[in-house]
Amino acid sequence: MWSYVFRRVLMTIPTILVVITVCYLMLHLTPGGPFDTERKVSEAVMANLQAKYHLDLPLWQQYLYYLKGLLQGDLGASFRYADWSVNELVAKALPVSLTIGGVSLLISVVIGVLLGTVAALRQNSAIDYLVMLIGNLGSAFPSFVIGPVLILVFALWLSWLPSGGWQDFELRYMVLPMALLTFINVSTIGRVMRGSLIEVMSSNFIRTARAKGLPTRTIVLRHAFKPALMPVVSVLGPLAISSITAAVVTESVFSLPGIGKLIVNGASNRDYTLVLGLVVLITVLAVLLNLLVDLAYALLDPKIRY
Amino acid sequence: MTFKLSRSAISASVLLALASGAAFAAKVPAGTALAAKQELIRNNGSETETLDPAVAESVGANNLTRDLFEGLTATDADGKVVPGVAESWKQVNPTTWVFKLRKNAKWSNGEPVVASDFVYGWQRFIDPKTASPYASTYGAFILNGIEASEGKKAPSELGVKAIDKYTLEVKTPYPVAFLPDVVSNLNLGPVNKAAIEKYGKEWTKPGKLVSNGAFVLKDWQVNSKVVIEKNPQYWDKGNVQLTKVTYLPVEDGFADVKLFQSGENDWVYQLPPATYEKYKQELPKDIRNAPMLGLRYYSFNVKDPVMKDKRVRQALSMVIDRDLLAQKITADGQVPAYGVIVRGTAGADVTAYEWAKWPMAKRVEEAKKLLAAAGVKPGSKIKFTYNTSEYHKKMAIFAASEWKSKLGLNTEMENMEFKVLLKKRHDGDFQIARNGWVADYNDATTFLTLVQCGSDQNDNGNCNPKAEELIKQGNQSTDPAKRKAALTQAAKMIMDDYPMLPLLQYTVPRLVKSYVGGYSTKNPMDRYRSKDIYIIKH
């Protein structure tokens, strides 16, 4: 298995290179540059700005310059936030996103799997309809609707929690954004788990287990649960990435200083280095999470071996 | 060279010199009970791009540098120029100003602020290596400024000199009557050379930033907050009421309002579109709204085959009902505009078209005649370009409906991302495009840059050489009245060419807690120093 892991990690290098190259070209092909502002700067000032950030060099030289920095772990200087390097910006935003996204995902997995299991085992019962309702609500209502409703109830009406902002990992500032992300993720995980378990429970090997006289509890926990988790594990990769790095709406609604906000601002400001730095980060995360998902398959399914 | 300073110019200098003995800070009205806790939370609209005054560009960055640093002059809550580090100044000849610095001004590390700090700050600002976006904007008012910003002259050749420790001499390329206003901008502030040389790029970080303003930097969490505290070394600290100001970088207007409603923000940056009337009803004590020196307008590309005909541009401008637009469409207190100069601008009068007073039916009739004479028939297509935003979309739909219903013209609406629009506008790749301008300083010349020949800010591509000459003559004059007359006439001449379609004068509708004192709605530049603000007992 370790050689498989090693090969997969090695594979990240060409993946990152391809992603950076494509992203680099796309950014430079997009009309409008980092220093195009409502107040147009003079040609001389534009030349000064471009020289400061090496944009006066031919594109291939800029690209090599960037790659050289990247190899040394330097993501470059932000074009927009002049006082900060991209490394500093990412280092400040990542812990926020990891905490909010990571914790909410963990809670979502526990609640989602539990609700999905109960719903599958009590198919067409009241609890099943409740789980399906939560699932459909979470899918149907976008986060920019649920978020403000949470703020209205818990911050403005009840005054229990702040309506937004961030204060050094203070729990009360994290509760509402985590609740929002959890709600959305639970709806996905719950629905997938329910569907998967219902399907597994109607399989031949479960019928065999029942015929052998095994109690339902043993059948579910020992035989059905593991294979039923496979589709859940499959969706966890994309869910983790979207919760950690692409929670743009959540970050905007609750004014959180996370990765999602940085990437949106970076793209709209044409902050090439910031966007590229974040793309590198997201690519690495995606590759690693997908690797973890693949390894989890092996644990869940004895037919899979690496 | 001999010259004669006008009486009003001399009076202005003398008045300011006399006034310099007084303190210019939070004016707490007699009988006002102040809160024990003098702390303010203020949204700044977005994350500041820098705390280095030389390269600060956005409104948010300037709000912060205005609190952290102090220039030769400053502007108070009513937008009036007041002494800053300079306690007096005098225009000793048309192109030379002498600023006398106060001897009790100190850096936050206790060292005195001296004339050479300004010389260093200005030379650093103009240096191409610093790459300040404003280098040519303000450099244009200092002798050799443009050449130095382009690297054609050394920064040391800039027209600023320390005569002695507390006397600064500034030379301008022509008589810049509004120089005291220009030098209130912190791009032209002092910076601490020793701190910059010691910390390099890190000099603006908490614990390292040495500043000379009413506040010092305490904490800076990117995309979360910037916290500043009262500067114990500040020369006028006795008149600074606030002990702590927290700047938030909230971009989402609705999130901003919710933070305000839940008591976590005292100062909304700007209300979300179409909410002004709602909050005016719901929070009448907190609502604040006032016109500022800014203009919403549409640019006509005068090089476009259709728009090159002045009659077409005039017809399109005549039929837009600005009153209806202001009252029913934007509905946020903005003022209809018919000229490039907006109300409250110093250095020129507001100009307006004669037809602005006509009934709409007469305007439409005249506009139809103009279009017919230009050979543009009803049913013809025009193209309008704007950046994606509900606000701009609403205005664009209104304009298109006016052109359709009154002139029979079909408008193709093209919306795009802001940066793409900027690129198209700067490249002249449009027919009619959304545009806007907020004054950098309170003088007519900031607005005239929008329509002057060859100006970087002129997206229309128009040029009126006679008006250009008039502007030049006005700027050479040392008589404020003559200058004003020349610039007003030039503005009218240019606007008679219809290079742009002026629509509305900006207002800034926002919510500010009723217990926040010192906020004035007479501030044309919408620039508020925290020094002027205080918290009333509540």
Automatic annotation (TrEMBL), chain A:
Q: What is the membrane topology noted in the UniProt record heading this document? A: Multi-pass membrane protein
- Residue ranges annotated as transmembrane are 9-27, 98-121, 133-161, 173-193, 232-254, 274-300
Q: Which residues form a coiled coil?
A: none
**Gene3D superfamilies linked:** MetI-like
* One family name in Pfam for this protein: BPD_transp_1
Q: Where in the cell is it found?
A: Cell membrane
Please name the InterPro entries in this protein's record. MetI-like, MetI-like_sf
Q: Name one GO cellular component term.
A: plasma membrane
Alphabetized CDD domains for the sequence: TM_PBP2
Q: Name one GO biological process term.
A: transmembrane transport
**What protein name is recorded for this chain?**
Oligopeptide ABC transporter permease OppB
TrEMBL record, chain B:
Q: Does the keyword Transport apply?
A: yes
KW DNA-binding (keyword) present: no
Residue ranges constituting the Solute-binding protein family domain according to the UniProt record: 80-456
**CDD domains xrefs:** PBP2_OppA
State the UniProt keywords alphabetically.
Signal, Transport
Signal peptide stretch: 1-25
Please provide, alphabetically and separated by semicolons, the GO molecular function terms listed in this UniProt record: peptide transmembrane transporter activity
Mention any one GO cellular component term assigned to this protein in its UniProt record: ATP-binding cassette (ABC) transporter complex
- Alphabetical list of PROSITE patterns matching this protein: SBP_BACTERIAL_5 (PS01040)
Q: Name one GO biological process term.
A: peptide transport
Q: Which Pfam families match?
A: SBP_bac_5
Report the domain of life of the source organism. Answer: Bacteria
What is the protein's major site of localization?
other
Compartments where found? Cell envelope
Protein family membership: Belongs to the bacterial solute-binding protein 5 family.
PANTHER family on file: PERIPLASMIC BINDING COMPONENT OF ABC TRANSPORTER, PERIPLASMIC OLIGOPEPTIDE-BINDING PROTEIN-RELATED
Q: What is this protein called?
A: Peptide ABC transporter substrate-binding protein
Which species is this UniProt entry from? Craterilacuibacter sinensis
> What taxonomic ancestry is recorded?
Bacteria, Pseudomonadati, Pseudomonadota, Betaproteobacteria, Neisseriales
